[in-house]
Design a protein that fits this description.
Strand order of the largest sheet: 3-2-1-9-10
Order of helices and strands: EHEHEHHHHEEHEEEEE
Strand content: 15-25%
Helix content: 25-40%
Shape: globular
InterPro entries: Ap4A_hydrolase, Calcineurin-like_PHP, Metallo-depent_PP-like
Protein name: Serine/threonine protein phosphatase
Organism: Rhizobium ruizarguesonis
Number of helices: 7
Length: 217
């Protein structure tokens, strides 16, 4: 059997991440891991989280790392020559200050470039993986970057999603992970005292998760 493991928002929580990687390795000898973004901000050690994820997996594992809105904010903060975006990122309480503190100053240029290069979506045979969400009113290939990074679903909302199951984070809740129809939210509020969650999918079976792995913060 082949599995895909989708990990929710990490937000600088390196210890839960390391324990989750160990739990996944114990679950199966190989597979694909999809990170749905938001590696940085708010938590204690964004630098260590990016160091670990950029280092990548051991063979024969495959990791796919999507961009979250917090990576987008971080990249924009350093790209803004007038420093307005950086001031907002650091001073608005969204976590930029904690990120910079984890670096002892400025974010490493190679980490900024890695974050900027992240894809916004991963689609396989049966699933769509994004950070925040999609708008079913538009074709999948015409989704806006804003929706993929920032959209939030009303409670209980689901759709057909072009015949696939949608997997996302971005909207935290201590009651997550939750599957609602054809949609699974895996942001369990790790940085807010919740847990880091991972949805497990059988690559040969359509639909939602067959299991969850959860690591307490």
């Amino acid at each position: 059997m082949c599995y895909t493991f989708a990990i929710g928002d990490i937000h600088g929580c390196i210890d839960p991440l390391n324990r989750m990687i160990d739990r996944i390795a114990a679950y199966a000898p190989r597979g694909t891991v999809v990170f749905v973004g938001d590696y940085v901000d708010r938590g204690p050690d964004s630098k260590s989280v990016l160091d670990r994820i950029i280092a990548g997996p051991s063979d024969p594992w495959r990791w796919i790392c999507l961009k979250g809105n917090h990576e987008d904010l971080m990249v924009a903060a350093y790209a803004d020559s007038d420093s307005d975006s950086r001031d907002v990122w650091i001073g608005s309480g969204i976590g930029g200050l904690e990120t910079e503190m984890s670096y002892g100053g400025r974010v490493l240029p190679q980490h900024l470039q890695w974050a900027a290069d992240r894809p916004l979506m991963h689609v396989d045979r049966y699933r769509i993986f994004v950070h925040a969400g999609v708008d079913p009113a538009f074709p999948l290939e015409q989704q806006s970057e804003h929706d993929l990074l920032w959209l939030r679903f009303p409670p209980g909302e689901s759709s057909d999603y072009w015949g696939k199951h949608l997997v996302h984070g971005h909207t935290p809740s201590l009651s997550n992970p939750v599957t609602t129809g054809n949609r699974t939210n895996i942001d369990s509020g790790c940085v807010f005292g919740g847990k880091l969650s991972c949805a497990v999918f059988d690559d040969e079976i359509a639909g939602g998760p067959i299991d969850f792995i959860e690591v307490r913060a």
